[in-house]
């Protein structure tokens, strides 16, 4: 029987695109109808539609599908394991005493926003390259400092992402593919360097982290021969109600629980160990950077696959939002203006105090957690001003722009659906749905710090540029 | 008994899912015992206790997935692993929770709704072909309502549909009834055994409504879009539509509706109906009777005639049909009321084929028939806003609908024109259609009513009779009340025509002189 005759003999089940009243008429006649949430592809821009058309040529599409399958397989099969902690100068590739890594795509000192400038000058003082913040500004502007994106040094950094030589780093090894990713230690929340604060209390905390916290973690992990399987721990944290970007309560508990036996065996004093536990308990953010390094470690394994349209990086420097795409190997950034973050703010601050979206933490959404796993974390829906139902909606909507679901990281509330994984540039442009990002808000001026948290989206321009480049590149 | 294990390295499933998977795995035929679990020490201990521990399991790590089965034979073992693999890879439907899942693309909707079998697409023409292609690629039949799609795109889409054995109705297809569900603009009609393939929307609506009136019913009404029978497109969808109805057990009679096809296409269509085992009624406006009859088809010159032939071929007793013959005394009466200078017909239509049918009726008696849709350039209106002698206007034509809704939804342009025509002392009769059904205006007669009443009064004051003919295209099942609509016309002193065919013939006969 031909498909037309099958249609005659089956109940009508219609996908309705465009005029919604047609849906109502069909429903009235007892047909099954699904009305699409449709918008013109590429915002109606003919060059983007032409690029989509080109990428949908059957021969090219087959190549892309194969490449994307491989990319997502590599993301899913990556097994990032925390193998240790050490100072950046000792482990981060290309690190020098005068290097300062920052979040997002490349940016020069003169273009940096308030929070990033605050963090950079604080780090210069912390590293002893200047005595005061004012002096640090001169040093920063003098050309004596080498600025580079964290991402271009196998690192990721929260918020300003500022990472200097003597800061302690997580070292996360991909046991499946061998690559390594690094990230800073959490300074916990609020008035901290990565949020742009840089007064004496901030520098003193960094010194304590360098002299006590970091070394204890380093020495503790030396006693753990197998490392800590972060993907397994991540899966558990999601089951316990974290989305592992803005909510890290469960993950922090799991991580410190795994570290504790080794911390106890180090030679530091009880007092110092107690300080460590108190510091970790002082906020829930201790594991936040850990998931970023885990995500980075998995995504780097999927970068540079010819013909792949899967996004491997989303990062912001506070001025520009940049993405990297697997099929465009190396450090090819596609950028657009950083957006506002919308969400609740600490008492006394107003939306106009906010700095624009900043940080490498959107690497978690790139992996498929954070905003993409909102349905796992109903406890923080208030943070994004919504209901549990909306949280579920965020997650299911992200399936529209991703390649697959990650069976290793699942969401109980959605019948153990895997997190949506492998953002596809083509799908973003086709649907107009932008990846949702959970993130913190830093004050726009240097020296103040965190003032809230909420959600934001990438600028569509970054994806449009990426699509055009891919269409040009893929033959 | 053999015990065999498969280790899937580095594959994580949560323990609850695995417990339920294990339960299902134990139900697979031939399985004595099966465990699916992560390679934790605890799980290995459990396997050891039930005698399922193998050396490779001992080697497995905490992030490795272990599948171990105890079965009677190697053959059953293979079967068990295949079954378990299916359990592991089985895609669940979309988790809806309480909220409705919103899909943004045809592809993702089709992927998540395997039962979906048709896409109705009504988006800007610039995007329409792309969406239709996606639908076809996802094995969906398509009704493409959008216009402004290039002929090249239409051909490509229809060829793709033809290859895949799918319907590609449109572009610019406004009418279809599939599985007794009216799509876009169509009327509520009885289900029956007459199938229609129509290249014209209101023409198909008219035939389906008349069939309903004569007691028949519709199996399927397939729209092809107006360009299907042009040379370039070659009737791809009409040919496939005929074949589908030929193959459809519920269809006994096939009716074809179109404006005149390109000669080469007409040849193909007639060759096709020659092969049909079912009777085929052909109403191609202005078509050639001999050719149709030679091909074994049943020729219909007008719409009502097509419907009558179809219901009779489908088994109705012709002698019992009320065919609604023309009211000859009424024609005589109107002729005497009209002054000698009231010579002309003005047809103001919302339905393109209804306009065409009335125009063709007039053309049989008059040479000076003008229209905005005339195929003869000599008789095409120079200015669409100015009538000339006998004039028939299709307000649904593109030049009237640029940036405006179709007149079946928004009657404003036609109302203005009506007022203008009614003032013209050379006009004897104004004929208009009022289309009911899904998609149409809620009260089309009501919208025109004040203008009609006023025009009649003004004419009377000027000492002339203005004859207005109204035809309501609809059935008693349509959501707008058919009787109400007709009664409104009658109360305003408008002559009600019982069909499109009669509307055209009455208009013509009212102004024919000296017979």
Automatic annotation (TrEMBL), chain A:
<dbReference type="Pfam" id="PF06545">
    <property type="entry name" value="AllG"/>
</dbReference>
<dbReference type="InterPro" id="IPR009499">
    <property type="entry name" value="AllG-like"/>
</dbReference>
<protein>
    <submittedName>
        <fullName>DUF1116 domain-containing protein</fullName>
    </submittedName>
</protein>
<dbReference type="InterPro" id="IPR024033">
    <property type="entry name" value="OXTCase_su_AllG_h-dom"/>
</dbReference>
TrEMBL record, chain B:
<dbReference type="Pfam" id="PF02629">
    <property type="entry name" value="CoA_binding"/>
</dbReference>
<feature type="domain" description="ATP-citrate synthase/succinyl-CoA ligase C-terminal">
    <location>
        <begin position="348"/>
        <end position="507"/>
    </location>
</feature>
<dbReference type="GO" id="GO:0009361">
    <property type="term" value="C:succinate-CoA ligase complex (ADP-forming)"/>
</dbReference>
<dbReference type="GO" id="GO:0004776">
    <property type="term" value="F:succinate-CoA ligase (GDP-forming) activity"/>
</dbReference>
<dbReference type="InterPro" id="IPR003781">
    <property type="entry name" value="CoA-bd"/>
</dbReference>
<dbReference type="GO" id="GO:0004775">
    <property type="term" value="F:succinate-CoA ligase (ADP-forming) activity"/>
</dbReference>
<feature type="domain" description="CoA-binding">
    <location>
        <begin position="191"/>
        <end position="285"/>
    </location>
</feature>
<dbReference type="GO" id="GO:0005829">
    <property type="term" value="C:cytosol"/>
</dbReference>
<dbReference type="InterPro" id="IPR016102">
    <property type="entry name" value="Succinyl-CoA_synth-like"/>
</dbReference>
<dbReference type="GO" id="GO:0006099">
    <property type="term" value="P:tricarboxylic acid cycle"/>
</dbReference>
<dbReference type="Pfam" id="PF00549">
    <property type="entry name" value="Ligase_CoA"/>
</dbReference>
<protein>
    <submittedName>
        <fullName>Acyl-CoA synthetase FdrA</fullName>
    </submittedName>
</protein>
<dbReference type="InterPro" id="IPR005811">
    <property type="entry name" value="SUCC_ACL_C"/>
</dbReference>
